[in-house]
Amino acid sequence: MKLLFITKYQSGTGGTETVMAKTFAGLADENDITFVQGIASADQSWLARIDPRVKVLRGVRGGTPWLPLYTWRLAHCNADVVIAVDSFTIKLATHLRTMLQKHYCVVSWIHFSLPDAPAVHEQELLKADAHIAISSGIQREYLRLGVPAARIGLTYNPTDQTKQRVTLDQSSVFKLVYVGRIQLRGQKNLHYLFSSLAKVARPIHLDVYGGGRDLPAAKRLTRQLGIAAQVTFHGWTTDVWTHIKRANALVLTSKFEGFPMALLEALTRGLPVLCPYLASGADDIVEPGRNGQLYSLDDPDALARLLNQPELFAQLDQQQIVQSVAKFSYPAYIARYNQVLARFVQMGASGTPLLAKSSAYSA
């Protein structure tokens, strides 16, 4: 198949870019792929990770207008499927298809929980013919919006299988790890993590791998809470898992995610995880009592209670932890993605409308 992936903007430093690069590489074995990004990434180094078989077109940051780039590419493409990563490009692709009398399928590929995604507007989203869901939570959100189940393809996200293992620390100090953007109050909600750490009675240490504008404020907060000696900020770290040798658990305190890749990366290395109940992603990955624990952010003491119970982690088997995420392996993911796209194309070729939109979203 000929596939055209389009996005308005990617920062270049997030998990979405990692998933996109891996997806392009796997799909390129059987498909002809073009990637168009309207506005150049702030950090363009991630583009070097894209497979050389993929044709990459991008605008200039703060320079060349991006709309002519999309219009020219869609006018001259003969793609079977256009996969749009945000609702703006969905709207653009469907509008230009009509204007240019093209026949490609427009498929959405959103990487956040739909109610929380910053670049998603439901009326524009539902102009797509079909939708790739990266979690069962997002699949449920599409169903709630009235999308027929046949027009939704559940792919999850991939993780690389590795023989690397994090040694589960046997010392008296419980070693906790956080990997991600440092954001105290927003999506990542690290204020909750630091506040919970201050309530833990047992010896504990937190290693924080990540950067962000809230880093100075985060350091101040740990001093105010009296836990500065228990927290090490490592900053943004390339190949973070080569630095994490010994630990007891990875923790997230996010208010929302699409599909938390940090969880998969930890579990494939045999490291248990702690994660809030999320609308999207967590219930696909975390199996309480087998590979980690889930907790409620509505309870200000929930995480602290778990951290005060070392037996919850001591009883977990590292091999079982690794096996728990086998279904997210890279080969299985690429096979699912190809199957989903083939099904969408077949549905379009049959003459059946790809998506029977409800009147509420027919704007």
Automatic annotation (TrEMBL):
One function term, GO molecular function aspect: glycosyltransferase activity
Q: Which domain of life is it from?
A: Bacteria
Protein keywords: Glycosyltransferase, Transferase
Q: Which SUPFAM superfamilies match?
A: UDP-Glycosyltransferase/glycogen phosphorylase
| Record domain Glycosyl transferase family: where | 172-309
Do you know which Pfam families this protein is assigned to?
A: Glycos_transf_1
Q: Which PANTHER family match?
A: GLYCOSYLTRANSFERASE
Name by which UniProt lists this protein? Lipopolysaccharide 1,6-galactosyltransferase
Q: What organism does the record attribute this protein to? A: Lacticaseibacillus camelliae DSM 22697 = JCM 13995
